[in-house]
Design goal:
Strand 2 and strand 3 form a beta hairpin. The N and C termini lie far apart (23 Å). The chain is built from two helices and five strands. It has a single domain, classed as Alpha-Beta Plaits. The strands form two sheets. A three-stranded antiparallel beta sheet has the order 1-4-5, with helices on one face. A two-stranded antiparallel sheet has the order 2-3. It is α+β, with helices and mostly antiparallel strands. It binds iron/sulfur cluster. Iron/sulfur cluster (SF4) binds next to helix 1.
Amino acid sequence: MAKLRTTVNKVKCISSEDCVESAPGVFRLDDEGKSEVYNPAGAPAAAILAAARGCPAKAIIVADEETGTQLFPPPKK
Ligand code: SF4
């Protein structure tokens, strides 16, 4: 799978830590208890996408690094 660009919308993040549990090599909580991406390559792409899907606040955005295509959440049509 292509390299991913993963970002967290901190306004939406509700600090549930689901992403930290499912991909601890990628996500951690910052000083304010919001998730941040500290190592974008810290887990396989499938695991990062699974973490994004599992976020209860839909605060994790994953895009293809090369093409910029948003992979999750799926772009609205
Ligand atoms: S799973 Fe979503 S709401 Fe929970 S800490 Fe991660 S980004 Fe925030």
